[in-house]
Amino acid sequence: MVGVVLALLGIGITPAPAATTASITVATALQRQDGSVATVEGYVVGQPTATTTVVRSNFPNDYALALADSASQTNTASMVYVQIPSAFRAQYGLQTNPGLLGQKIAVTGTLTAYFSHPGLKDGTAFTGGSGGGGGGGSDPGDYYANAEGKTGAALKSALHTIISNQTKLSYDQVWNALKDTDQDPANTNNVILLYSGRSQSKSTNGGDPNDWNREHVWAKSHGDFGTATGPGTDVHHLRPEDVSVNAARGNLDFDNGGTTVSECPGCAADGDSFSPRAAVRGDVARMILYMAVRYEGGDGWPNLEPNNSVNNGSAPYHGKLTVLKAWSAADPPDTFEKRRNQVIYDNWQHNRNPFIDHPDWVNSIWP
């Protein structure tokens, strides 16, 4: 009645605002396992398959995912396990949509245990992410958020901070990592050798002639870091290669020209430089530039930098920068290189090579 009278008098009534439910963090969801309904916002960090197991590749189905407050989180105690109802599996299941890994999404559901772990079940809404396919090798969600809008030295500094958040491997672990990262897509029993391009059995790693071994693309003598955990074991620049071809490359800088290298079609070398086959020249350039951004001298290792010289010897420099930039432009990232970057991120070091995700950043940092 009061409302009718006020309306007749021409006095408007402002309706009460509709109730809204703000999203909560994963940390809050972990504490609030009380059967209430909430919208949880976080990064997709894998698929739970058991109480303390979350896988980041080879997803068995589309039934579940794990969320965390950081895209690089690997501790299951800091994750909430999300049940994916059948209506959302085609868009948000990780087997169908592996490219969702690292992306930020929001899920509305009931805060209750799943896999005997703090969870979110009976979801009624899933939003965010790209959904609908994708696949590995893409820039994952907000991984590079702190580098956005930056150029030059500021961009290099921001990327250094981002990619330095990594899991470090031992030199022995590198063997198994390379069997995963450089797997031949046409034969899962083999790896592809970087310079020679040969597909060879994973089991033939070693030091005998025609075995494959661990090639340091940034030659380990350029800064004298050896094979100790750190730059000497960073699989972003370690690749499988034929023992004799690895020896032929030695610690040479990279440049055009030279004579043919035995067992390495398309490769050339002279007294001060090595040139790989055309199909991987861009890969080589982006590995060298990754190392220059990752290792800046602040963690006990030398400050690695590209320069425009050859014959760098034991100095922490690698060349030839003008040639490497040209190689990167002429040979952009292909499917193999993108997959490799993703596998390193998913399974081994949990960091990325920014120049595979954003080749344009090469000229921004080194104009």
TrEMBL record:
<dbReference type="GO" id="GO:0004519">
    <property type="term" value="F:endonuclease activity"/>
</dbReference>
<dbReference type="InterPro" id="IPR045939">
    <property type="entry name" value="YhcR_N"/>
</dbReference>
<protein>
    <submittedName>
        <fullName>Endonuclease I</fullName>
    </submittedName>
</protein>
<dbReference type="Pfam" id="PF19886">
    <property type="entry name" value="DUF6359"/>
</dbReference>
<dbReference type="Pfam" id="PF04231">
    <property type="entry name" value="Endonuclease_1"/>
</dbReference>
<keyword id="KW-0732">Signal</keyword>
<keyword id="KW-0378">Hydrolase</keyword>
<keyword id="KW-0540">Nuclease</keyword>
<dbReference type="GO" id="GO:0016787">
    <property type="term" value="F:hydrolase activity"/>
</dbReference>
<dbReference type="InterPro" id="IPR044925">
    <property type="entry name" value="His-Me_finger_sf"/>
</dbReference>
<dbReference type="InterPro" id="IPR007346">
    <property type="entry name" value="Endonuclease-I"/>
</dbReference>
<feature type="domain" description="Endonuclease YhcR N-terminal">
    <location>
        <begin position="24"/>
        <end position="126"/>
    </location>
</feature>
<keyword id="KW-0255">Endonuclease</keyword>
<feature type="signal peptide">
    <location>
        <begin position="1"/>
        <end position="18"/>
    </location>
</feature>
